[in-house]
């Protein structure tokens, strides 16, 4: 058995942690669902923060996916404005056929926290319509996730 950096890239602590759980469950004889290596969040702890999960626009097109992209700038988010943290955006890439998230990219305040919403959305095969209908509290940075989802559908509310 191998986990973490020894098992290969990406060399991320959260990937290694999940591999560790899967390894112990396998040794114990428990059934484990496995690890979705296409749904590992990448986080860069800098200023502004950068986080992503899934495919880029270019990768999605190379795979032949018919996609729509929605982008929402922090300059249109009330919480980001009041915090003075308006550099960056939330971008979501959705598959047109099923309206599911194939990739998400966030540059800006708390990007490394907010990316988890897209990770869960991808895991549950959530549609952009469902992402939007999930009520996001106001005023919060998380509203930008719903706005990016709406933008991918062609009708963001606040831009």
Instruction: Kindly state the number of beta strands.
Output: 5
- Outline: globular
Largest sheet: 5 strands, antiparallel
C-alpha-based Rg, rounded:
17 Å
CATH homologous superfamily identity of the largest domain: FAD/NAD-linked reductase, C-terminal dimerisation domain
What class would the helix/strand composition place it in?
A: alpha+beta
Distance between the termini: 50 Å
Average per-residue pLDDT, rounded, comes to: 96
Descriptive terms for the model:
159 residues; globular; 36% helix; 5-stranded antiparallel β-sheet; single chain; alpha+beta; Enolase-like, domain 1
Plain-language structure description:
This protein has 159 residues and is α+β, with helices and mostly antiparallel strands. The chain has two domains: 35 residues, no CATH class; 114 residues, FAD/NAD-linked reductase, C-terminal dimerisation domain (Enolase-like, domain 1, 2-Layer Sandwich), CATH 3.30.390.30. It is 36% helix and 19% strand. Strand 4 and strand 5 form a beta hairpin. It starts with 12 loop residues before the first helix and ends in a 7-residue tail after the last helix.
């Amino acid at each position: 058995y191998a986990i973490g950096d020894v098992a290969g890239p990406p060399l991320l602590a959260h990937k290694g942690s999940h591999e560790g759980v899967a390894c112990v469950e396998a040794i114990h004889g428990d059934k484990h669902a496995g690890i979705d290596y296409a749904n590992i969040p990448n986080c860069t702890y800098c200023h502004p923060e950068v986080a992503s999960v899934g495919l880029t626009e270019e990768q999605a097109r190379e795979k032949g996916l018919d996609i729509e992209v929605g982008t929402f700038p922090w300059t249109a988010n009330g919480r980001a404005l009041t915090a003075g943290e308006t550099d960056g955006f939330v971008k979501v890439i959705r598959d047109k056929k099923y309206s599911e998230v194939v990739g998400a990219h966030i540059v800006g305040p708390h990007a490394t926290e907010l990316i988890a919403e897209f990770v869960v959305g991808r895991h549950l095969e959530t549609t952009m319509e469902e992402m939007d209908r999930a009520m996001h509290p106001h005023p919060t940075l998380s509203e930008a996730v719903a706005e990016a989802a709406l933008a991918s559908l062609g009708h963001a509310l606040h831009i």
